[in-house]
Amino acid sequence: MEVVACTCPVCGRSVPQLAVSTEVLDVVVNALEAGSPTLAGLELKERLSCPEAAAQAWVSHLLSCVAAWPTYAADEDVLRSVDAAFADVARPEHFTNFTHCDECREHDDTLRARTRDTLQRQDLGTAGWDPISFCSAEGIGYFFPTLARFALLPAVWRDRDWYADQLLSHLAWEGAENGFRSWCTPVQRQAVAELLRHMAQTRAAMLTRHGCEGALADAVRVWCDTSEQA
């Protein structure tokens, strides 16, 4: 099988063009969730009868570029709303109070090195080392379309938990006094509320598996119950 490669318009990487169905993608995701990118590539090779190098390169791109993921039809409307609501947020010069300490500077350096299109799951760390925890409201707003996409993806990154758990924590922080919510416009608040409702409707099994039901409920109380308030 001859495989043609093209350049990803987002990350600039040369990527094999493979016709991956939803069923095959599910098999690949299961292998990634089990912690084995190599097995994911082998599964892809077996099901598509493509060269192993092409299969492994496709999986590698999937893990490095949020735009590589085939968008499930059920997510398109809510992500379109998020994109529209935050489209005009300018990229700030700095994302944290970078002069405060070495940790703030390191997180600022991480985020300044990325754009909405090039931000990677690895950049977002863990609950204990998360640059978004130190980020300004403007910075969160700039990256929010990408953060929303990561939150809807399964937990397929090695040594990283499901990103939705981290994002829900940011959205629920300090309750009604949440700084990001206070910064958002009514349209942006509504888009975040729609995302949370969408997660509740479409990611129930993942929320249960990762113990995030309480985190979602906390975020819903902040954004959905009060999303129409100024």
Describe the structure.
By secondary structure, this protein is an all-alpha fold. The protein has helices spanning 22-33, 37-48, 52-64, 73-86, 102-112, 137-152, 163-172, 179-183, 186-202, 204-209, 213-223; strands spanning 5-7, 14-16. It contains eleven helices and two strands; from the N terminus they run E-E-H-H-H-H-H-H-H-H-H-H-H. Helix 4 runs antiparallel to helix 9 (186-202).
Short key terms for the protein model shown above:
2 strands; 3% strand; 230 residues; mainly alpha; 11 helices; two-stranded antiparallel sheet; single chain
Layout of helices and strands:
Elements: E1 5-7, E2 14-16, H1 22-33, H2 37-48, H3 52-64, H4 73-86, H5 102-112, H6 137-152, H7 163-172, H8 179-183, H9 186-202, H10 204-209, H11 213-223
Antiparallel strand pairs: 1-2
